[in-house]
Amino acid sequence: SQQGEEDPQALSIQEGENATMNCSYKTSINNLQWYRQNSGRGLVHLILIRSNEREKHSGRLRVTLDTSKKSSSLLITASRAADTASYFCATDENYGGSQGNLIFGKGTKLSVKP
Amino acid sequence: DSGVTQTPKHLITATGQRVTLRCSPRSGDLSVYWYQQSLDQGLQFLIQYYNGEERAKGNILERFSAQQFPDLHSELNLSSLELGDSALYFCASSVGEARGRGYTFGSGTRLTVV
Protein backbone atom coordinates (compact mmCIF):
# COMPACT_ATOMS: atom_id res chain seq x y z
CA SER A 1 0.00 0.00 0.00
CA GLN A 2 1.18 3.55 -0.66
CA GLN A 3 2.11 5.53 2.41
CA GLY A 4 3.50 8.77 1.04
CA GLU A 5 1.63 10.78 -1.53
CA GLU A 6 3.60 13.41 -3.38
CA ASP A 7 2.20 16.63 -4.69
CA PRO A 8 2.31 17.83 -7.39
CA GLN A 9 2.51 14.79 -9.66
CA ALA A 10 4.47 16.85 -12.18
CA LEU A 11 6.32 20.15 -11.97
CA SER A 12 7.94 22.13 -14.75
CA ILE A 13 10.21 25.10 -13.98
CA GLN A 14 12.99 27.17 -15.50
CA GLU A 15 16.62 26.75 -14.56
CA GLY A 16 17.50 28.90 -11.57
CA GLU A 17 14.03 28.72 -10.03
CA ASN A 18 13.26 26.86 -6.83
CA ALA A 19 11.27 23.63 -6.88
CA THR A 20 9.06 22.56 -3.99
CA MET A 21 7.56 19.11 -3.68
CA ASN A 22 5.27 17.96 -0.92
CA CYS A 23 4.61 14.59 0.63
CA SER A 24 1.80 13.49 2.92
CA TYR A 25 1.66 10.24 4.82
CA LYS A 26 -0.84 8.41 6.96
CA THR A 27 0.70 6.63 9.92
CA SER A 28 3.25 7.25 12.62
CA ILE A 29 6.76 7.18 11.21
CA ASN A 30 10.29 6.64 12.43
CA ASN A 31 11.83 8.74 9.66
CA LEU A 32 11.08 10.10 6.21
CA GLN A 33 13.46 9.93 3.27
CA TRP A 34 13.62 11.51 -0.17
CA TYR A 35 14.96 9.74 -3.23
CA ARG A 36 15.62 10.78 -6.77
CA GLN A 37 15.22 8.62 -9.86
CA ASN A 38 16.44 9.46 -13.31
CA SER A 39 14.30 7.91 -16.03
CA GLY A 40 14.42 4.12 -15.81
CA ARG A 41 17.39 4.13 -13.46
CA GLY A 42 17.81 3.15 -9.82
CA LEU A 43 16.78 5.40 -6.98
CA VAL A 44 19.36 7.54 -5.26
CA HIS A 45 19.03 8.45 -1.60
CA LEU A 46 19.02 12.23 -1.12
CA ILE A 47 18.24 12.99 2.49
CA LEU A 48 16.71 11.50 5.63
CA ILE A 49 14.85 13.38 8.34
CA ARG A 50 13.97 11.74 11.62
CA SER A 51 10.58 12.09 13.27
CA ASN A 52 12.02 14.35 15.99
CA GLU A 53 13.59 16.74 13.46
CA ARG A 54 11.78 19.63 11.81
CA GLU A 55 14.21 20.77 9.13
CA LYS A 56 17.33 19.47 7.45
CA HIS A 57 19.67 20.84 4.80
CA SER A 58 22.00 19.18 2.35
CA GLY A 59 23.60 21.38 -0.29
CA ARG A 60 20.77 22.86 -2.39
CA LEU A 61 18.21 20.61 -0.69
CA ARG A 62 16.04 21.61 2.24
CA VAL A 63 13.60 19.19 3.80
CA THR A 64 10.96 20.00 6.38
CA LEU A 65 8.84 17.62 8.40
CA ASP A 66 5.59 18.39 10.21
CA THR A 67 4.53 15.29 12.12
CA SER A 68 1.35 16.95 13.38
CA LYS A 69 0.20 17.38 9.79
CA LYS A 70 1.90 14.19 8.63
CA SER A 71 3.60 16.05 5.82
CA SER A 72 7.04 16.85 4.47
CA SER A 73 8.40 19.13 1.79
CA LEU A 74 11.51 19.01 -0.35
CA LEU A 75 12.87 22.28 -1.65
CA ILE A 76 15.52 22.34 -4.37
CA THR A 77 17.01 25.80 -4.68
CA ALA A 78 18.56 27.29 -7.81
CA SER A 79 17.50 24.33 -9.91
CA ARG A 80 19.56 23.04 -12.81
CA ALA A 81 18.62 21.06 -15.91
CA ALA A 82 20.45 18.13 -14.34
CA ASP A 83 17.87 18.11 -11.51
CA THR A 84 15.30 16.81 -13.99
CA ALA A 85 14.14 13.52 -12.49
CA SER A 86 11.39 11.95 -10.43
CA TYR A 87 11.48 12.56 -6.69
CA PHE A 88 9.98 10.14 -4.19
CA CYS A 89 9.33 10.39 -0.51
CA ALA A 90 9.53 7.20 1.52
CA THR A 91 8.47 6.56 5.07
CA ASP A 92 9.93 4.15 7.55
CA GLU A 93 6.80 3.25 9.46
CA ASN A 94 7.04 3.00 13.21
CA TYR A 95 6.36 -0.62 14.00
CA GLY A 96 7.77 -0.44 17.47
CA GLY A 97 10.73 -2.73 17.87
CA SER A 98 10.46 -4.46 14.54
CA GLN A 99 12.00 -3.33 11.30
CA GLY A 100 9.84 -1.10 9.19
CA ASN A 101 10.56 -1.27 5.52
CA LEU A 102 10.40 1.83 3.36
CA ILE A 103 7.06 2.62 1.76
CA PHE A 104 7.31 4.89 -1.28
CA GLY A 105 4.92 7.41 -2.73
CA LYS A 106 4.20 7.68 -6.44
CA GLY A 107 6.63 10.52 -6.97
CA THR A 108 6.81 14.01 -8.43
CA LYS A 109 8.19 14.30 -11.93
CA LEU A 110 10.34 17.43 -12.07
CA SER A 111 11.35 18.98 -15.36
CA VAL A 112 13.87 21.83 -15.31
CA LYS A 113 14.12 23.70 -18.58
CA PRO A 114 17.42 25.36 -19.52
CA ASP B 1 27.95 2.69 -9.69
CA SER B 2 25.97 2.40 -6.47
CA GLY B 3 27.70 -0.78 -5.33
CA VAL B 4 24.50 -2.83 -5.64
CA THR B 5 24.67 -5.10 -8.67
CA GLN B 6 21.61 -6.48 -10.37
CA THR B 7 21.59 -8.96 -13.23
CA PRO B 8 20.34 -9.23 -15.82
CA LYS B 9 19.56 -5.63 -16.80
CA HIS B 10 16.89 -6.66 -19.27
CA LEU B 11 14.83 -9.83 -19.57
CA ILE B 12 12.19 -10.72 -22.12
CA THR B 13 10.24 -13.90 -21.56
CA ALA B 14 6.94 -15.52 -22.40
CA THR B 15 3.87 -15.91 -20.23
CA GLY B 16 3.96 -18.99 -18.04
CA GLN B 17 7.73 -19.01 -17.79
CA ARG B 18 9.95 -18.70 -14.73
CA VAL B 19 12.85 -16.29 -14.29
CA THR B 20 15.44 -15.56 -11.62
CA LEU B 21 16.70 -12.09 -10.85
CA ARG B 22 19.94 -11.71 -8.99
CA CYS B 23 21.21 -9.04 -6.63
CA SER B 24 24.58 -8.53 -4.97
CA PRO B 25 24.34 -6.00 -2.14
CA ARG B 26 26.86 -3.28 -1.45
CA SER B 27 29.88 -4.57 0.41
CA GLY B 28 29.16 -4.72 4.14
CA ASP B 29 25.38 -4.42 3.80
CA LEU B 30 23.42 -7.21 5.43
CA SER B 31 19.89 -6.28 4.42
CA VAL B 32 18.45 -6.77 0.95
CA TYR B 33 15.09 -5.42 -0.18
CA TRP B 34 13.19 -6.17 -3.38
CA TYR B 35 10.84 -3.68 -4.98
CA GLN B 36 8.65 -3.81 -8.07
CA GLN B 37 8.05 -0.60 -10.02
CA SER B 38 5.26 -0.36 -12.55
CA LEU B 39 3.51 2.63 -14.06
CA ASP B 40 0.17 1.94 -12.42
CA GLN B 41 1.29 0.65 -9.01
CA GLY B 42 4.40 2.73 -8.44
CA LEU B 43 7.13 1.28 -6.22
CA GLN B 44 5.85 -1.70 -4.30
CA PHE B 45 7.83 -3.35 -1.53
CA LEU B 46 8.05 -7.10 -2.07
CA ILE B 47 10.30 -8.65 0.53
CA GLN B 48 13.27 -8.04 2.82
CA TYR B 49 16.08 -10.29 3.97
CA TYR B 50 18.59 -9.64 6.71
CA ASN B 51 21.70 -11.80 6.98
CA GLY B 52 20.00 -14.72 5.28
CA GLU B 53 16.68 -14.55 7.09
CA GLU B 54 13.38 -13.23 5.80
CA ARG B 55 12.48 -10.11 7.81
CA ALA B 56 9.45 -8.53 6.21
CA LYS B 57 7.01 -9.30 3.45
CA GLY B 58 5.05 -6.82 1.40
CA ASN B 59 2.86 -7.21 -1.64
CA ILE B 60 4.62 -10.29 -2.91
CA LEU B 61 2.57 -12.75 -4.93
CA GLU B 62 2.61 -16.44 -4.07
CA ARG B 63 4.12 -17.05 -7.52
CA PHE B 64 7.16 -15.06 -6.41
CA SER B 65 9.78 -16.18 -3.94
CA ALA B 66 13.16 -14.98 -2.82
CA GLN B 67 16.12 -16.03 -0.77
CA GLN B 68 19.38 -14.60 0.53
CA PHE B 69 22.43 -16.82 0.41
CA PRO B 70 25.33 -17.09 2.90
CA ASP B 71 27.44 -14.76 0.74
CA LEU B 72 24.55 -12.27 1.11
CA HIS B 73 23.55 -12.15 -2.53
CA SER B 74 19.85 -12.54 -3.13
CA GLU B 75 17.67 -14.02 -5.82
CA LEU B 76 14.08 -13.22 -6.68
CA ASN B 77 12.26 -16.02 -8.45
CA LEU B 78 9.19 -15.20 -10.51
CA SER B 79 7.15 -18.11 -11.85
CA SER B 80 4.03 -18.64 -13.97
CA LEU B 81 4.67 -15.21 -15.37
CA GLU B 82 1.79 -13.05 -16.52
CA LEU B 83 1.72 -9.97 -18.73
CA GLY B 84 1.05 -7.87 -15.65
CA ASP B 85 4.35 -8.92 -14.12
CA SER B 86 6.16 -6.75 -16.65
CA ALA B 87 7.91 -4.11 -14.56
CA LEU B 88 11.22 -2.83 -13.25
CA TYR B 89 12.47 -4.90 -10.36
CA PHE B 90 14.84 -3.17 -7.97
CA CYS B 91 17.03 -4.54 -5.29
CA ALA B 92 18.28 -2.28 -2.52
CA SER B 93 20.62 -2.90 0.35
CA SER B 94 21.41 -1.27 3.65
CA VAL B 95 23.70 -1.66 6.60
CA GLY B 96 22.02 -3.56 9.41
CA GLU B 97 18.28 -3.31 9.42
CA ALA B 98 18.28 0.22 8.07
CA ARG B 99 16.42 1.87 10.90
CA GLY B 100 17.37 5.46 10.36
CA ARG B 101 19.49 4.84 7.28
CA GLY B 102 18.92 5.19 3.57
CA TYR B 103 18.87 2.39 1.08
CA THR B 104 21.29 1.92 -1.79
CA PHE B 105 19.50 0.84 -4.93
CA GLY B 106 20.73 -1.17 -7.86
CA SER B 107 19.98 -0.09 -11.41
CA GLY B 108 17.18 -2.62 -11.73
CA THR B 109 16.10 -5.46 -13.98
CA ARG B 110 13.54 -4.58 -16.62
CA LEU B 111 11.29 -7.59 -17.10
CA THR B 112 9.06 -7.78 -20.14
CA VAL B 113 6.57 -10.63 -20.34
CA VAL B 114 5.18 -11.21 -23.82
Quickly list its features.
heterodimer, A: five-stranded antiparallel sheet, B: 114 residues, mainly beta, seven-stranded mixed sheet, 11 strands, globular
Report on the architecture of this protein.
The complex is a heterodimer of chains A (114) and B (114). Chain A starts with a strand and ends with a strand. Chain A is mostly beta strands. In chain A, strands 2, 4, 5, 9, 10 and 11 form a 6-stranded mixed β-sheet that branches. A 5-stranded antiparallel β-sheet of chain A has the order 1-3-8-7-6, with no helix packed on it. Chain A has no helices and 11 strands. With 114 residues, chain B is an all-beta fold. In chain B, strands 2, 4, 5, 6, 9, 10 and 11 form a 7-stranded mixed β-sheet that branches. Chain B has a 4-stranded antiparallel β-sheet with strand order 1-3-8-7, with no helix packed on it. The mean pLDDT of chain B is 93. The chains are: A mainly beta (114), B mainly beta (114). Chains A and B meet through strand 4, strand 5 and strand 10 of A and strand 5, strand 9 and strand 10 of B.
